[in-house]
Amino acid sequence: MTDLPRIFAGIAAGLHHLSDRQRVIAGNIANSDTPGFKALTVEEPDFSTLLGRPSGGRRVARPTVALTGTMTALGATRPASAARIVEERDISETKPDGNNVTLEDQLMRMGQVQADYATLTNLYAKQLKLLKTALGRSGG
Length: 140
Fold this sequence. Notes:
Low-confidence stretches: none
Number of strands: 2
Radius of gyration: 19 Å
Shape: elongated
Helix content: 40-55%
């Protein structure tokens, strides 16, 4: 049996990313009144592995920060998922108590997640339909 087209792996990675983003945004909203809380976001996934480049090909890797013993002693913890959760860089305001979560910004981000999810699920459905057509099967 052959592997499925790479587009399915890309769609799956995109959907997992959107799930992580939605979870982080919900956490931001839940902590919108917590003094000193900093809004978080999920870094975009690396889709370069889906391009089929040879393993010896050059590419620029995203820098990573390894959790050290000192960081752990200061209270840092490893994120629960494989996604890289980082502090939000695009902040519109910071409250006097240090909290920088703006509900309007978070709700706009949640709307974008919803739109991206709809796009990916539509793309998935169309790819399945193409596969069925290629295999000579009709129907939904």
